[in-house]
Amino acid sequence: MSFREHGVSRVAVLGALVVVGALPVGVVSGQQGQMEVEVEQLQDNLYVLRGGGGNSAAFVTSDGVVLVDTKVAGWGQPLIDAIGELTSNPVTTIINTHAHFDHVSGNVEFPATVEFVAHDNAKTLMEEWNPVTGFPGNFPDVFETSGGQGLPTRTYQDRLTLGSGADQVDLYYFGRGHTGGDTWVVFPALRTMHAGDMFPGKQVPIMDASNGGSGLEYANTLRMAYSTVTDIDTIITGHSVQMDRDDLREMADFVDGLVSAAKQAKAQGVSAADFVADWSPKPRFRVDFSMPAPASFQAWVQVIYDEIDAM
Fold it and tell me: Could you read off the pLDDT of 177-222 as tens digits, one per residue?
């Protein structure tokens, strides 16, 4: 999950059913009432699908469509409709980058013939349906209501490869950060990676301790992705525009600076609330990186503080 630029809460954003940083689109389709999926073509067979939650990606293979993330509840059918305008191939695989409601809730609207893939920890977290640290709202447990339909049917621990050749998709788990089960999805033939909300955009990220996330480990996980996945040109972010490896490295530097400052403040006896009131990013980050609402920011700084206490 994410926040819009200039600190506007995504509670309001979701209410309006819009997404941060949407680019001009080549196709606008999948309409259902007020629900509209915005389709942006990145490659001949790769599309970013915006609206109604996190950025989804549709990868059209020779056998079917691999879909990454399915947005908030009610957006499964609009996704199906939008993809149907792009290809006659059915959705055969859904990959969930993590367990948050705005990336997985549409799962339940897809047929049981679809293979649902996620990290081991993400499956457990979907089953638990925990609240999100620092993010207000009550989001119904779609998996409980569906009797488990849409939960992952295939999981992995460190790395998993789906398909081969031009249709290959590589899944990586590099460690804790946004949650404890974040998948990085790589399309090697297209030199493109979907980072989910480990890289939501240039902003303070959610550090969701309720779902296994970590502030102390976040920057290292970003650096692991940067150093391991080198043959890419484009990164699909969780909620913003496309970025590249330089932006990923900058995100790691930003998070590292935030965590280092929080560590120093805690050592000096500064409360999380006072830290949030006084802290600002280094000058090189101040233009591009946005800040969340103070209450949410304080909750994530408290995650860092709590992790230090637990060491």
Answer: 999 999 999 999 999 999 999 999 999 999 999 999 999 999 999 9
How far apart CA 102 and CA 99 sit, in angstroms, is 9
Residue 183 is classified by DSSP as: P
Q: Are 146 and 115 in contact (CB under 8 A)?
A: no
Q: Say what the pLDDT of residue 137 is.
A: 87
Scanning 105-198, the segments in alpha helix (DSSP H) are: 120-128, 142-145
Provide the sign of the torsion angle of the four alpha carbons 218, 96, 125, 294, taken in this order: positive
Q: Which residues of the chain have pLDDT under 50?
A: 2-28, 30, 32
pLDDT for position 33: 56
> In the chain, what are the domains?
5-310 (3.60.15.10)
- Rounded Cα distance, 115 and 158, in Å: 19
Region of 53 (left: φ > 0; alpha: ψ -120 to 50; beta: rest) is left
Helix (H) or strand (E) holding 160, with range, is strand 159-162
Q: What is the pTM of this model?
A: 0.91
Q: Any residues with CB less than 8 A from the CB of 47 and at least 6 apart, and which?
A: 39, 40, 41, 57, 58, 60, 86
CA angle 109, 115, 87 (to 5 degrees): 70
Going by C-alpha positions, the residue among 102, 91, 309, 286 that lies closest to residue 211 is: 102
pLDDT of 55 reads 98
